[in-house]
TrEMBL record:
CDD domains: fer2 (cd00207). This is (2Fe-2S)-binding protein. Residues 1-22 are annotated as: Disordered. The keyword NADP does not apply. Pathway: Alkaloid degradation; nicotine degradation. The lineage of its organism: Bacteria, Bacillati, Actinomycetota, Actinomycetes, Kitasatosporales. The keyword Lipid biosynthesis does not apply. GO terms for molecular function: 2 iron, 2 sulfur cluster binding; metal ion binding; oxidoreductase activity, acting on the aldehyde or oxo group of donors. Residues 61-137 form the 2Fe-2S ferredoxin-type domain. SUPFAM superfamilies: 2Fe-2S ferredoxin-like, CO dehydrogenase ISP C-domain like. It comes from Streptomyces parvulus. InterPro entries: 2Fe-2S-bd (IPR002888), 2Fe-2S-bd_dom_sf (IPR036884), 2Fe-2S_ferredoxin-like_sf (IPR036010), 2Fe-2S_ferredoxin-type (IPR001041), 2Fe2S_fd_BS (IPR006058), Aldehyde_Oxdr_Iron-Sulfur (IPR052914), Beta-grasp_dom_sf (IPR012675), TAT_signal (IPR006311).
Amino acid sequence: MSSEDSESTSPRTVQPTAPSRRTFIKSTSTVGGVLVTGALVSGTTSLGTAVAAPAEPPKNFEVTLTVNGRRHTTTIDTRTSLLDLLREKLELPGTKKGCNAGACGACTVLVDGKRMNSCLILAVRLEGAEVTTIEGLADGDELHPLQQAFIDQDAFQCGYCTPGQIMSGVGCLREGHTGSSEEIREWMSGNICRCGCYVKIVRAVEQTADGK
Ligand code: FES
Ligand code: FES
């Protein structure tokens, strides 16, 4: 063995080797895993501070609201829409579910006097609210003038959109957006009628606005 060979293999002359890519990735992923695990599972930060787990939001909630003049106190899933509360819990199926996404107006009701799409409102937010649905519009046997106008003008075919059209029409009348047929069309444009009864629906609103 030459003196050169012995020098190159001597422990005193071996240089520290850089970690290979494989070793580096293995070691850093292990450290990262420990940090992530520590933060998320054990609920401690990297500084060792204890972190409280976020509280679970309540799944059920009690709400009191008035529907068609009748007060209801009921416990509901916090995700319940006003539409589902009306139809499935309060047994008021007159309000219709069309798109269930705020696009058709079939579910229109009055909340504190303002027309709204009930499919878009969480019922838990309506503590103390006054809701009027199509079932609450007539005065006993006497129809609301707009209900009567829909009959007079023959403003429906299948009738599925009609409760929403009438409730929206009541809102439109109260808001005073009845100066012309164009204005009525514009302010009723959120209510879709697949049967295409728009001309007669506008006439019904006009009839009511004119007090005929
Ligand atoms: S069902 Fe609410 S807007 Fe269509
Ligand atoms: S009357 Fe059928 S959708 Fe309007």
